[in-house]
Amino acid sequence: MSHKIGHQKTELVKRLNKIEGQISGIKRMVENEKSYADILIQLNSSRSAIQKISQILLEAQAEHSLMLVNEGENLETQMTVLRQTIIQYNKMN
Q: What mean pLDDT comes out for the span 28-47?
């Protein structure tokens, strides 16, 4: 895991807790038969929050890979790691 993630761990956990709360709220909305439009609004909000976390992780991986190459790690190895991370990120969009 990236050095940046270590520094951002608290922030990421806060974001994940918020998403967890949003999902619980959406579940209650479904159980209470709230309007589909209201549920979709909350789903979109949760999806945006998840996408933001994905962006933070992608940026952290890029910075981490560059830092490792700067410290002497193999460039091709780190490019492979970064490509795999980008592929996973793109699957979310």
A: 98
Helices (H) and strands (E) in the chain, counts: 3, 0
| Mean pLDDT computed over 79-83 | 97
Can you spell out the DSSP letters for 21-89?
HHHHHHHHHHHTT--HHHHHHHHHHHHHHHHHHHHHHHHHHHHHHHHHHHTT--HHHHHHHHHHHHHHH
Report CA-CA distances (Å) from 59 to 4, 20, 71, 74, 85: 9, 23, 18, 19, 10
Question: Are 68 and 30 within 8 A, CB to CB?
Answer: no
The predicted model scores a pTM of 0.81
Q: Per the structure block, which two tokens stand in for 41?
A: 């609004």
